[in-house]
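Researcher: We plan to redesign the surface later, but first we want a full-length starting point. Tokens attached.
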């Protein structure tokens, strides 16, 4: 039974990866045609989440993140049952913590990638007037503003410094939380209840 659950977990992980590829390809609508087979296997699932209006914030569509979160939860549940053969309160709490961490880490890594892309474009003097870069700036500007307010007390710093410091700060936060979640999850799993 555990081997079947492990296989299903692997399939869920691969499907999540396909969805991530599909999402990334939508960023390049004008330059890259999304293969039909990719939309055929991902769109029915993604469209179910798109119907929820609260997952849209202006032009930002968070429904793919919610869709990936649900797959992550399902994968975690199946992996936990496959590994331990049972469910206890401590395991459930560890699983909930891991799922929350999955969503938070996905978001942090996504933002870090956006900041690094913007930094590379800035350093190489790329033309950032296209729609792709407008999306990148729409996502990165609020992060840069908040980091500037927190770390520089609102003082004006140059764009490159702001990008570097923001990416480094988020990367540091990512690793600190990751270590904390790992320690807390290990503790919760060992609970006898």
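Model: Full-length starting sequence:
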């Amino acid at each position: 039974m555990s081997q079947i659950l492990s296989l299903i977990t692997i399939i869920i992980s691969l499907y999540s990866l396909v969805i991530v590829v599909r999402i990334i390809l939508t960023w390049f609508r004008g330059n890259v045609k999304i293969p039909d087979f990719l939309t055929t296997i991902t769109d029915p699932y993604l469209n179910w989440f798109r119907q929820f209006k609260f997952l849209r914030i202006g032009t930002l569509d968070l429904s793919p993140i919610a869709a990936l979160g649900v797959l992550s939860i399902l994968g975690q549940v199946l992996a936990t049952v496959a590994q331990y053969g049972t469910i206890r309160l401590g395991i459930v709490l560890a699983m909930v913590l891991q799922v929350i961490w999955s969503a938070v880490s996905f978001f942090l890594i996504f933002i870090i990638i956006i900041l690094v892309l913007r930094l590379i474009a800035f350093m190489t003097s790329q033309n950032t007037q296209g729609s792709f870069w407008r999306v990148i700036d729409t996502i990165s500007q609020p992060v840069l503003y908040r980091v500037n307010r927190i770390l520089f007390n609102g003082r004006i710093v140059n764009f490159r410094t702001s990008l570097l410091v923001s990416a480094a700060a988020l990367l540091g936060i990512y690793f600190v939380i990751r270590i904390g979640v790992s320690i807390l999850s290990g503790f919760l799993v060992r609970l006898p209840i």
